[in-house]
Design brief:
Blueprint: H1 2-35, H2 50-60, H3 71-80
């Protein structure tokens, strides 16, 4: 029984490694695409990775289209959860 449990555990570990690798590839693609937009600067904020930057970009909207509000204020409101 122990051997079968070890096989299942190894399969789950392999599955985890595959999913982790796919997530990394997607994050790299997201970062690449984000850098092609006006919101690419969000990645320069310490502690902000591709996923959070995309979420912020979606929440804040297009920086140029929505220029009536200072972008730093928008980021502050987003990060503070006040929006």
């Amino acid at each position: 029984m122990l051997e079968s449990e070890l096989i299942l555990l190894q399969q789950k570990l392999n599955e985890y490694e595959l999913i982790h690798s796919q997530i990394k590839q997607l994050e790299e693609l997201i970062e690449e695409k984000l850098l092609e937009t006006d919101e690419g600067f969000l990645l320069s904020i310490p502690g902000i990775g591709p996923t959070t930057a995309v979420e912020m970009s979606a929440e804040i909207g297009n920086v140029q289209w929505n220029s009536n509000m200072d972008i730093s204020l928008k980021c502050t409101l987003y990060l503070g959860g006040l929006n």
